[in-house]
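Methods, example record. To illustrate the input and output format used throughout this study, we show the complete record for Phosphoribosylglycinamide formyltransferase. The sequence lines were provided to the predictor; the line carrying structure tokens was produced by it.
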Amino acid sequence: ARLVVLVSGSGTNLQALLDAIAADPDYGATIVAVGADRDGIAGLDRAERAGLPTFVVKVKDYDSRAAWDLALAEAVAAHAPDLVISAGFMKILGTEFLARYAGRTVNTHPALLPSFPGTHGVRDALAYGAKVTGCTVHFVDDGVDTGPVIAQGVVEVRPDDTEEALHERIKEVERRLLVDVVGRLSRDGYRIEGRKVLIPA
Ligand code: GRF
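The corresponding predicted structure is encoded as:
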């Protein structure tokens, strides 16, 4: 499968995919481009070090959010992906984008959805006093972190946890979960039936 990965930050999920692809000739996917909503981020450096094409589509360069959404969809479409992986991408993908890529866009979220959706899932779980949290890999739909769940991983919350410490522990699980899911979707194919994601064993 051809993957376009969207990032907004450090890109360690992207790096995990790059490493898995480099390590396993039978992984079943290749990253054909990396896109971002901002420049000057480590995620783009990682892509350039891997020799991958990159693109940056900034909201402020467009006179509406819808125009940005369309521009992002076109920038992605230029690389003809089979799957779009939103790995730490911090913008909501809108109608224009989903018109083309719904059902083919996977997101990873650092909480156990439906708990703690949105931009501060780790902070919210910690503040709530959750005893366990974790990460969710799901297909993107037109809500915020509401699409069909593909896989989840559980991480214990420790009494002395800070947001950063907890997020780092979550990211260790998240990277493995994302690599496993993307490989299975790419190799085995899948079907989405309502809220169920069916991947042949
Ligand atoms: C990940 O935990 C992702 O779920 C969240 O932000 C983090 C991004 O990490 N949205 P990275 O950019 O992949 O290192």
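Annotations derived from this record:
The pocket of 5-O-phosphono-beta-D-ribofuranosylamine is lined by residues 7, 9-13, 43, 87-88, 108-110, 171, 174 (CB under 6 Å).
The chain has a mean pLDDT of 97.
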